[in-house]
Amino acid sequence: MMFENPPPVRNYPLYWWHVFVKWLSFFVFGVGSVLISIVAFPVLKLLFPDPKRFRTAGHRFISAAFRFFVGFMTVIGCARLTAPDRKRFRTLSSKIIVANHPSLLDVVMLISLVPNADCIVNAYLTGKNILHIIVRNLYIPTSLSHEEIMQKCAESLREGNNLIIFPEGTRSLPGGQHPYKKGAARIALMSGCPILPVYMGGNDKRGLRKHDSWLAYNTRRRYHYVVTMKPEISPAPYQDLPAPAAAKRLTQTISETLADRANKDSIELYDALC
């Protein structure tokens, strides 16, 4: 995995400043989540009593809130986002967006780019914490049965939403990725909607990866996310295969698209931008 062995810290005051602004960013995220849950959502429900219109407005509101949050992180020097296909992200409809998952902020970056983004959210976020108000009203929790999840995904795609899925199911481990799960492929085969692979690249995300210490940070500079689209994958060529084989082959295609070539493209783009 690239950037696995970063250079030593050169400027310790700057390094600890970056750690501080990372903590500050998550504090602001937490406060913002509470305000959205107890202030913004009740207002949206009053303005849009129809459930479908409420979800549409809610998705766009969360996307705008995440854009504000990304802008805040840029201003304080915590992280920045580069998306060469930013305009196309804003016009996507009924796509299954699959992405690698190297860090904690990946979903924030993607939803900030896609105004009509839906996603499947880990069941623990539907518990007693304040985020459950947002998740239960707008997104698809993994606590549902397999049939219910598939049904809600298909319904969301028919409404023109874009479904964000991380096929690994969790953040990548430092040094490698988890095997890709077949959920995205099964949804594509069922719905007929195309898959849009998106590569989450940039520099070292040390401190935001799975099992990293909260005191860890990139040793040289602030986090930089480079989000690039890859060619769409149509499920049509796999439809004639038996369902298990079709899902396996399509998942393999997704994995290959987001592997070596995508990795090299991201490094080349990152080097050019820096």
Describe this structure as you would to a colleague.
With about 270 residues, the chain is α/β, with parallel strands linked by helices. It is about 50% helix and about 10% strand. The chain has helices at about 10-45, 50-75, 85-90, 105-115, 130-140, 145-160, 185-190, 245-255, 260-274; strands at about 80, 95-100, 115-120, 140, 160-165, 195-200, 225-230. A seven-stranded mixed beta sheet has the order 1-7-6-2-5-3-4, with helices on both faces. The chain starts with 11 loop residues before the first helix and ends with a helix. The model is unreliable at about 265-274 (pLDDT under 50).
Question: Could you write a compact summary of the structure shown?
Answer:
The protein is 49% helix and 12% strand. With 274 residues, it is α/β, with parallel strands linked by helices.
Write the layout of secondary structure elements.
Blueprint: H1 12-47, H2 51-76, E1 79-82, H3 86-89, E2 96-99, H4 106-113, E3 117-121, H5 131-138, E4 140-141, H6 146-158, E5 162-165, H7 183-191, E6 195-202, E7 223-229, H8 243-257, H9 260-273
Average pLDDT rating: 88
Strand tally is 7
- The helix tally amounts to 9
Strand arrangement, major sheet:
1-7-6-2-5-3-4
Largest sheet: 7 strands, mixed
β-sheet strand percentage: 5-15%
Order of helices and strands: HHEHEHEHEHEHEEHH
Terminal CA distance: 20 Å
| Spatial extent as radius of gyration | 19 Å
Low-confidence stretches: 267-274
Structural class: alpha/beta
Helix content: 40-55%
User: Which term fits the overall shape?
Assistant: globular
